[in-house]
Amino acid sequence: MPNFIMSYLGIKDAITPGAAGSQFWALVYVFIIFAGVSVAVMAMNWLERKALAHFQIRLGPMRVGPHGLLQPIADAIKLMLKEDIIPAEADQFVFWVAPLIGLLAAFTVYTVIPFGPSQAVSDMNIGILFMLGVSSLGVLGIVVAGWASNSHYPLIGALRSSAQMVSYEVAMGLAVVSAILMTSLNATGTGTLSMIGIVQAQQQQGVWFIFKFFPLGLIAFGIFAIAMIAETNRAPFDMAEAESELTAGYHTEYSGLRWSLFMLAEYAAMIAVSSIAVALWLGGWMRPFPNLLQGPAWDFIFSLFPGLTFLGLAAIAVLGVMRMPSHSFFKIQRVGLAAFAAVLGFIALLLLVIAVAGRSADASGAMSPAARFREGIDYVYWFVFKVAVFMYLFIWYRATWPRYRFDQLMKIGWKVMLPISLVVLIATAIVGVLVS
Amino acid sequence: MNPALNSGLNSAVNSGMAPVATPWFFYGLAGLAVVSGLLVITRRNAVHSALALIVTLLAVTGLYLMLYAPFVAAVQIFVYAGGIMLLFLFVIMLVNIERSSKDRQFNRMWPVGLAAACALLALFVSAFVKGKALFPDRTISLPESSNTQQIAGMLYGEAGTMGAYTFAFEIASLLLLVAILGAVIMTKKKV
Amino acid sequence: MIPITTFHYLVVAAALFVLGVIGVLTRRNVVIVLMSIELILNAVNLNLVAFSRMWGNLHGQVFSIFVTVDAAAEAAVGLGILIAFFRNKETINVDEIDLLKW
């Protein structure tokens, strides 16, 4: 049994809990991922309000914690304490079950997301197919939610939203297929559908799929990037839930905790589809320039990045402390922000210590346990960093672009994205056959 | 925690994957599938029936995963639960009329139908009891890590040759095209 | 506990099949009849995949993919017929769809 624990700390050959058949460690990983996603959703909520506010030259929430850092917690407590209103003629059981369907669909996909070559709950043979299929179950939750509310705004919103999601799923699937085609351009000629296998195929071929067969990889990535915004009902494709159009669409009648479940499902779905984009086109857990800037020196420099990121965040927090008005009313906020800066600085110090202690061995192939641990942290860091870039892009799009009218949206989905993705798929296949 | 704790499947040949599915998984999934199937045919409200059918389909997906058929499970989630059930829900919303949930649910010939189903069940039971010797007790495990590749080999053929089911695959795609055209033409208002 | 053999899966498939047959023969709502047909097809798929595992080759799984494709096409066409009929006569009960009766 100690062998077993050591294998997950990276000392022996690391494998995913699914491959090892260990239920306990799979549960531990699931719990870690669940906690991580919950923290990420809360952070995303805060970041969205602050970033939107700064885009619109205002400040956003500033009161609840220092710079509004405790705002998501206050929101969560408020939503939990709100009165649970169910419309009179609504179907009680279906009304209750609808957010759960969306939540289950959004969270189940996290079992196959590859945070590292062995840092996933289980590496299914059909990883990408599983992710796309289960995220298409979320549409059922929306349709059922709109139907169960027994009022016409939610019904129209639900039908529009599900029609939009279904149309963009087609373009999304074709873009994914063209990325998977590229995994089969190796010696044996067989590709793979497993998420870890796709990132390892990018590692073997030495190029991120976004840059492969330029510009085909880029166009496929672009189609997926646009389709994933439509898939999660975010701006500029948020006709179905826009406040000014349909009084919040399919979740009009939901209040309090149930609405927060929908919001949780939406953010979790956003993170999930961004992870698909990162794993398929942007090289997953690989650090930037793995082939151009090689060697132990560059490896060491890139391994300092996690610590430096947290150091940067701590520096921004310290700047916020120094810029706070020196009035007695702000004493608590100053102390709070200083404590937050101290925590971030401590994490940064920890990561820098790990990076220095875990320098990989140069000549011999054996790596010390510290080096393996540092490598595991680096894999997770680069993956999360790329997903965080996508999350910021989501917020940026919402602040910048006006929304599409529904018929324009459907026209784009069927008449523009589908033909382009078909052409890219055929072109990728032809180029792939000609190259090999 | 011990990966050798596979009390479920008998000691069959495992190609690299330790089985963790115990009999409890099977009985749970099978029970869920049968109970949800019962709910499908007995609910008065069509939306409840559709939700019960979704639960049945997901339980059957779990059974496929226990049978080392991950690709079939993925196709089931994609096509059945994600596509067909959505279609059913849309149509239920389109044709739902209030009076239908207050009508009689079962038609007048329901005793005859039930008797026919019982006869079918008796046929199945006799086939299982008599033919139990025909099912060999071995359960050969199929390797799970190359399931998709092998199915693709059968559907598309290895390099240069035609697979066993390539022709059927093409006919299936034609069938889907015909179904799309049929559905679109039938639901147009002016033909 | 007894190890799970192919026979267990066949029993589950038979149960689902019989439930589907009862649904087809006794319900009045057309949509529920179509859903019972989907139950029947699922039972057949489960049978095929269980036997595929017993024999150790993949023919059963490939055939079950074809059955799934078939079920999708049939559901689409069946629901199209239902909608087309619903426009003429506002009913979804099977025993009221009797326009040819005199």
Describe the model.
The complex is a heterotrimer of chains A (436), B (191) and C (102). In chain A, helix 3 (23-55) packs across helix 12 and helix 8 runs antiparallel to helix 10. The model of chain A has no long low-confidence stretch (mean pLDDT 86). Chain A is built from 17 helices and no strands. Helices cover 68% and strands 0% of the residues of chain A. Chain A has helices spanning 2-8, 17-20, 23-55, 71-81, 92-108, 127-135, 138-148, 152-182, 195-205, 216-231, 243-246, 257-281, 296-303, 305-323, 331-357, 369-400, 406-435. The termini of chain A are far apart. Chain A has two domains: 2-286 and 388-435, no CATH class; 297-387, no CATH class. Chain B is mainly α and 191 residues long. In chain B, 62% of the residues lie in helices and 0% in strands. Chain B has helices at 23-42, 46-66, 70-95, 110-130, 147-156, 166-186. In chain B, helix 1 packs antiparallel against helix 2 (46-66) and helix 2 runs antiparallel to helix 3. The model of chain B is unreliable at 1-18 (pLDDT under 50). Chain C is an all-alpha fold. Chain C has one domain (6-96): Helix Hairpins. In chain C, helix 1 packs antiparallel against helix 2 and helix 2 packs antiparallel against helix 3. The longest helix of chain C is centred in the last third of the chain and has 30 residues, at 59-88. The radius of gyration of chain C is 17 Å and the shape is elongated. The termini of chain C are far apart. In chain C, 58% of the residues are buried. The mean pLDDT of chain C is 89. At the B-C interface, helix 1, helix 2, helix 3, helix 4 and helix 5 of B face helix 1, helix 2 and helix 3 of C.
